[in-house]
Amino acid sequence: MKTFKGIDVSHWQGKIDWKKVRHAGIDFVLIKATEGVGFTDPMFKVNAKGALAQNFPKGVGAYHFARITSVADALEEANYFVAVTKEFNFTGPLVLDLETNKAKLNKEQLTMAAEAFLDLVKRESEKNVALYVNKNFHDNYIHKIDVPLWLARYRDESRGPGVECDIWQYTDTGRVEGISGPVDMNIAYGDITMTKQSENALNHGEYRTEKGDTLSHLAATFKTTIKELLQLNQSSNPHDDQNRKHEGKESAAAIPSHKYYTIKSGDTLSAIALRNKTSVKQLQQWNKIKNANKIYAGQKIRVK
């Protein structure tokens, strides 16, 4: 399996020379954005602009250090995270960093709160999401969630994580050119750059460029070349902001419009399904709801 080398950073790394980091062989970067509600890392915008400008081959993502005490609190923190990160077109995942449980939630409560956070972030940002936990949290405080797992377990790189995960943070004392002090080092076991739009594009054959996109990144994402993208779009200008077509599995398809509803206290899926002339099963499928009885006020779901 091919692996990729990455780092995660915050204001603790101070001023970073991102050009040097890129040339040091780093494939991806994860940047601290927010914590709780109301705190934005003081170096977040500087780090995001600097890292995105270097076009790291396996993407740049952001993470939120959670202080979740309930589902309602998780939704509030998720909304804050989305509001702060929406300025940037991150190509890596938006991550829930879950390391504390001061409210002493049980496994079911903490898992439900984490799922609420991740569902809201994925829906509102249309980016991939992931969960960061250390091995102790993984083993004792939370059930498995169906998102990529970023696991912290510090030990020699040659030993591997010892737990199935998508990204492994193996040390907090790494050294990388362009960063003056120690930095967290990570290994990714696969491509972490795919966004929801990219996944749709692979199936439907058409992609609309977003702010921050480059043809080199699009070419890598869709396993083609810059020359082929230019030919398919009948353009000789690599900076044209138009639909960039690629060789997908099917021809381009229209995207249907959807209707969403924010759940209120006392709502049930059966009542919502009845009002919207659909079924509970369909609502569960659209919104990836495993247990029809586990919905909560403030949750935004697709109903058509």
**CA radius of gyration:** 20 Å
CATH architecture of the largest domain: Alpha-Beta Barrel
Q: Which structural class is indicated by helix and strand composition?
A: alpha/beta
- Extract low-pLDDT stretches: 240-256
Main beta sheet strand tally, sense and closure: 8 strands, mixed, barrel
Report the helical percentage.
Answer: 25-40%
Fraction of residues in β-strands: 15-25%
Output the number of helix runs: 10
Mean pLDDT: 84
Quote the distance from N terminus to C terminus: 40 Å
CATH superfamily membership of the largest domain = Glycosidases
CATH class of the largest domain: Alpha Beta
What's the arrangement of strands in the largest beta sheet?
1-2-4-5-6-7-8-9
- For the secondary structure, the number of strands is 13
Named CATH topology of the largest domain? TIM Barrel
SSE series: EHEEHEHEHEHEEEHEHHEEHHE
EC number: 3.2.1.17
Protein name: Lysozyme
Keywords: Glycosidase, Hydrolase
Family: Belongs to the glycosyl hydrolase 25 family.
